[in-house]
Amino acid sequence: MEVIRKAAKEDASRLAEILIFAKRAAYRPIFQNDLVSFGEMQVLPLAQEYLSHPEKLAGLWVYDNPFVKGLVHLQGTELQQLYIDPFFQGEGIGSALLSFALKQGARFLWVLEQNEKALGFYKARGFSPTGERRLEPGTTQYLLRMEYTAANK
Fold first, then answer.
1. Which of 2, 82, 148, 151 has its CA 20 to 30 A from that of 123?
2. Dihedral, CA of residue 66, residue 68, residue 70 and residue 71, to nearest 10
């Protein structure tokens, strides 16, 4: 049974694990910066951050079946994060979380221009680039703004 629920403090370790490993898998080929991927990005400090500051869990929802396999972070109409544990990618979890986000009112997101897998995922599910782009802070990589347009087709 598919369950999407609000993230809780008890999820801190799993959230950190998913975020760190999914980001390493997605972004290491783009940024090619192992000092960040394996030095700065660490599971324990991120889990401790969630435990020390549970307000950072606001807007975070998890896919829990029978344990947390993915997460989505919403803020207003912006989908800020959507990450699936790399071991469970391709099982429909991302689509379920995206569908949930759309029902909650999410209408736009920012995605790395070089992240072809994410771009393809969002395009296949009704998102279109708006033409707006901005630099990812501290890098030479651009983010593209995408908006949900399937409802208008």
1. 2
2. 130
Asked if the 1-106 domain carries CATH number 3.40.50.1820, the reply is no
Token pair 């598919």 is at which residue?
2
- Outline where DSSP puts E strands in 65-141: 68-75, 78-84, 108-112, 127-135
Half-sphere exposure of 144 (CA within 13 A, CB side): 17
* CB of 38 closer than 8 Å to CB of 24: yes
* Residue 98 contacts residue 125 (beta carbons within 8 Å): yes
For the chain, the domains span 1-106, 107-153
Contact 102, 109 (CB under 8 A): no
